[in-house]
What does this fold into?
Amino acid sequence: MKRLILLLALVVAGCGGSGVSTSTGPNGEKIAGNGVSVQVSGAASPTVAFELAQRYCARQDRAARFVGQNGAAAAFDCVKPT
It folds into this structure.
């Protein structure tokens, strides 16, 4: 049984290398990004989604650029400022 648990733990740890980070905004928004793009779900408005994306992108010295929206999820690219 211990071997099974150890094997399962190793498999799950190996799956964590996708490069996608997830976090939660101040009002429960879901933020998922990989450094060059970010998706914000559950924001109260497009303005709030943009502000959260801008904050995320600023960590990589980039700016958020709106890509599109699908229901309650908004997608942004993190672009280098010109």
User: Anything to note?
Assistant: Residues 19 and 34 are 6 Å apart (CA to CA). The chain has one domain: 19-79.
